[in-house]
Amino acid sequence: MAEAILAIDYRKRLATQAAGGASADAAGFIALGDGGTTEAGVRSLIEYENRLALFNEIHRVPLTRVEQIDALSTTAVGMATNLAGKTISEAALLDRQGRVMAFKSFPAKAFGADETFDVSIRILF
């Protein structure tokens, strides 16, 4: 899957932290939704930049791993289960309070019984 776009709201929290204000919270969850595609195809990440949530969240999972890959990027991973009959086409990285940090969209993927989904979101700073 492609890299994600940082949400404007998260960038505001980082700016506040840089100015000596409240610290931005660490990553905690990945939200999954089915609103990442339209009749025209996969939504552009620019459509997400100012949003505070996915277009249609249908599932949320705690992170199983978060690691800094290099000096300017971090990858968060979660494993989604219980997706039988659902179609996923968008994901968001959320902080521990459930506030959005980053978004990504991708071609719709339908899930069958007992199928799991290892989803990762890589954010560049």
Q: What is the rounded Rg?
A: 14 Å
What count of structural domains?
1
Percentage of residues assigned to helices: under 10%
Strand order of the largest sheet: 1-8-7-2-5-6-9
Uncertain runs are: none
Q: How many strands?
A: 9
Oligomeric description of these chains = single chain
Mean pLDDT: 94
Separation, N- and C-terminal Cα atoms: 18 Å
User: Which H/E pattern describes the elements?
Assistant: EHEEEEEEEE
Strand content: over 45%
- SS class: mainly beta
Largest sheet geometry: 7 strands, antiparallel
Large-scale geometry = globular
Number of helices: 1
Entry keywords:
9% helix; 7-stranded antiparallel β-sheet; 1 helix; two-stranded antiparallel sheet; 9 strands; 125 residues; mainly beta
Give an account of the 3D structure.
This protein is 9% helix and 50% strand. The protein has 125 residues and is mainly beta. The protein has one domain. The strands form two sheets. The protein has a seven-stranded antiparallel beta sheet. A two-stranded antiparallel sheet has the order 3-4. β5 (57-70) and β6 (73-80) form a beta hairpin.
Short summary:
The chain is mainly β and 125 residues long. It contains one helix and nine strands; from the N terminus they run βαββββββββ.
